Amino acid sequence: MMNQIEMLVKQTNDAYNWTNKLLNSVPYHKWKDTPKVMDSNICWQAGHILVGIYFHSIMVVIGHQMDVLQKIPLKDYADRFMDKSPEEAAENVNPEELYEQLLFMQQKSIQTLSALPESGLDNALEPSPTPHPIAHNKFEALDWNIKHTMWHCGQLGMLKRVVDERFDFGLKR
Fold this sequence. Notes:
Elements: H1 4-24, H2 42-62, H3 66-71, H4 74-83, H5 86-90, H6 95-115, H7 138-163
């Protein structure tokens, strides 16, 4: 039987794997396409997920991490992928670089989660200038990270269908 940390790691990995399957299935040259019917794009979704992972599974769990802040322009990304329109957010963004940064953030998130003691899951969140909109403790923040990522996976799936083609889940038709 899995303990809570092992279960959170498994579910987080599953959410990240679904994100990556969807992102890998859309050619980079289509990442900035913003269909009117959705008013979103793959670039904005990937950047928003990246910022969300940092906030929900790292910053409020163990505090700011200098290695992440040195590698990824998170202040710019928070402004870009939280407050700007998808078209504005995608300006001057290299989709390949953004995807590499997302993979780094996912890896850092899993490392952080894997190193947590199970006894600390009920602990209060680390102080943050922005209050967490959902969570009151570390477990709730990590659990929300999974839900938030999968919520955006649904949006990625719909975007893929509109800008590229239906995702092939391997189902027989």
